[in-house]
Amino acid sequence: MVNKPYIRLRNVSKIFGENPDSVIELVKNDIDKNELQNNHHHVIGLQNINIDIPKNKIQVFMGLSGSGKSTLIRHLNQLIRPTTGEIIVNNINVTELNKKDLINFRRENFAMVFQKFALLPHRTVLSNTYFGLQIRGVKSPELENTAKYWIDKVGLDGFENYHPNQLSGGMQQRVGIARALANDAPILLMDEPFSALDPLIRIEMQDMLITLQKELKKTIIFITHDLDEALKLGDNIAILRDGKIIQSGTGQDIILNPHDSYISNFTAQVNRGKVIECEKVMKNLSKDAFSKVTIAKETKLEEAVRVMISNNVNEVDVLNSKKKYIGTVYLNDVMASIINPIDEP
Amino acid sequence: MSILTEFPSIDTETLRSLKKSIDSGFLNFSRNYGDNIESFFDPIRFLLIESEQFLINTPWPIIMAIIAIIAWLGSKNIKIVLSVIIILILIGYFDMWENTMKTISITFVAAFLAIVIGIPIGILMAKSNLFQRIMNPVLDVMQTMPSFVYLIPVVMLLGIGKIPGLIAVVVYSIPPMIRLTNLGIRLVNKAVIEAADSYGASNTQKLIYIQIPLALPTIMAGINQTIMLALSMVVIASMIGVTGLGQPVLLAIQNQYFTLGIFNGFAIVGIAIVFDRISQAYGKRIQESHGTVDGK
């Protein structure tokens, strides 16, 4: 990925307590969360966060509750102000914006989807959807037309005049997504948008987001506590713990090289066949002509197994994006990579 | 030890001169500025007289029809409309129509003023914790201070009549309007406000698009309470010259006319029920259309 970072966080820390400034230096010098809490009576929200987020990709922040992921996403649009550090969005340092500029900046750059939907209960699906546009001063009939387009897009046509409390959770979140997309902001902030939904609905919504993203190519910041969700959606994943990023990279990187036992505990539960790509397990035989059955190097292992079994072969050649041979994968190697390593720490 | 049996109070002479100087100070003030202040209230006097003239001079079937239509628009409930009509017929049949119209007029004007003044104050209280801390004791005083006490300076300034009565009614009935507006706005779901912030809503936009509509059921409860309190003040207001159902009650107390008292008393209860049922039904309908009934 040669994308220039679109969002850049530098040494961002957030301290909660009576006098956060008094402990900034301690936090900068990596003081332990518990020590700060017990001896200095301040709570760390975020500690020395540094990350570059590329444009038009899905960046996932994953962590358990209390890891600071919701605090982090609220720093990007300054719903929460950092105690110290720099947050650059689209070449603008958002921490330096005054109140009026910040309001305009939010209108032009961000749309947000919330875990508990946060729809306006007194408004219909239609007027909920155009809320962001209305705030920006867009007038009728463009207001209704745009909203209508996105309501159809998220599969809610016919429900325009319903109120949120007449809809199921999944449908309410579709309204939340329609509201965000109608705004046509380049950055989409999603704070655990699917966590409150049933597992089946959740998968349906994830698939919808993937389909939409193929077309829209927005910069999406996605928060989740579910590693499967993170791996499915994230182009890049950052794992947060106690307000710090402990590992950042592609899903495959994290699965193959977990930074510590905390992360490998997570990754042990993951279906590796859905994450690891053929390129990682292929052997280069440096041959020119390739067999009939070929797959692209980004193909996930699970899919490779499916191809081999349906073609009744034990090996398959891997091609790069220019359709050139780059290696061969064997069924044995693939299966060995899919099962979880037992004695890995 | 007399200090234990008798509270050590300020000596009589000092107390008398203190009261005297405050009283004469206020007397001078009212002599100098009374006329200006009176003319300040001219628009309200105009409103009062016009609404009373309208209610009394319009033929009773038209007034009854208007009230029935308002009852229908507010409640969409035919039972409420019918009971409103029955109450009005009984009031008219027992020859209390004109006084009832006068009472409805002052209640209407007082409630109108309480809403116009109360809602902005309630909004300010919701926006500023400091202002809330200042206003709370003021509202306590307004609700508990016997009305006669603040009527003294008002009567000194403006004399006996409709305006001082109206001021007394508004002062007594405005606190629930202010408190419930404040409460309603403060109770608006924080997550919804955060969502509005994330889309770049300004304070005014948040107020218009979210806080006021979502606080509306609570504000309606405030309006209902304000109307009820305004009605309960009509007897006291009649002591300083407000005409209406309060005057016959006052007369009944002074002369022990039991039946006169009870008829007019029931008429007050009757219009209280009319106002209450209509405004409550309306409040409930707003709540339902907001989808806030089931707590979502």
Draw up the topology in text.
The complex is a heterodimer of chains A (345) and B (296).
Chain A: E1 5-16, H1 24-28, H2 33-40, E2 43-54, E3 58-62, H3 69-76, E4 84-89, E5 92-93, H4 99-109, E6 110-113, H5 125-129, H6 131-135, H7 142-153, H8 169-182, E7 187-191, H9 199-216, E8 219-224, H10 227-233, E9 236-241, E10 244-249, H11 251-256, H12 261-267, E11 294-296, H13 301-311, E12 315-319, E13 325-330, H14 331-338
Parallel strand pairs in A: 3-8, 3-9, 6-7, 7-8, 11-12
Antiparallel strand pairs in A: 1-2, 1-4, 4-5, 9-10, 12-13
Helix pairs in contact in A: 7-8, 13-14
Chain B: H1 2-5, H2 12-40, H3 42-57, H4 60-75, H5 78-93, H6 97-127, H7 129-144, H8 147-158, H9 162-186, H10 190-198, H11 203-232, H12 234-238, H13 246-255, H14 258-289
Helix pairs in contact in B: 2-8, 3-6, 4-5, 4-14, 5-14, 6-7, 6-9, 6-11, 7-9, 8-9, 9-11, 11-14, 13-14
What does this protein structure show overall?
The complex is a heterodimer of chains A (345) and B (296). Chain A has 345 residues and is an alpha/beta fold. Chain A has two domains: 54-270, Rossmann fold (3-Layer(aba) Sandwich); 273-338, CBS-domain (Roll), CATH 3.10.580. Chain A is 36% helix and 23% strand. Chain A has 14 helices and 13 strands. Chain A has helices at 24-28, 33-40, 69-76, 99-109, 125-129, 131-135, 142-153, 169-182, 199-216, 227-233, 251-256, 261-267, 301-311, 331-338, and strands spanning 5-16, 43-54, 58-62, 84-89, 92-93, 110-113, 187-191, 219-224, 236-241, 244-249, 294-296, 315-319, 325-330. In chain A, a hairpin with a 2-residue loop joins strand 4 (84-89) and strand 5 (92-93). The radius of gyration of chain A is 23 Å and the shape is globular. Chain A starts with a strand and ends in a 7-residue tail after the last helix. Chain B is mostly helical. Chain B has a single domain (19-289), classed as Orthogonal Bundle (MetI-like fold), CATH 1.10.3720. Chain B has helices at residues 2-5, 12-40, 42-57, 60-75, 78-93, 97-127, 129-144, 147-158, 162-186, 190-198, 203-232, 234-238, 246-255, 258-289. In chain B, helix 6 crosses helix 9 (162-186) and helix 9 (162-186) crosses helix 11. The model of chain B has no long low-confidence stretch (mean pLDDT 90). At the A-B interface, helix 4, strand 6 and helix 6 of A face helix 10 and helix 11 of B.
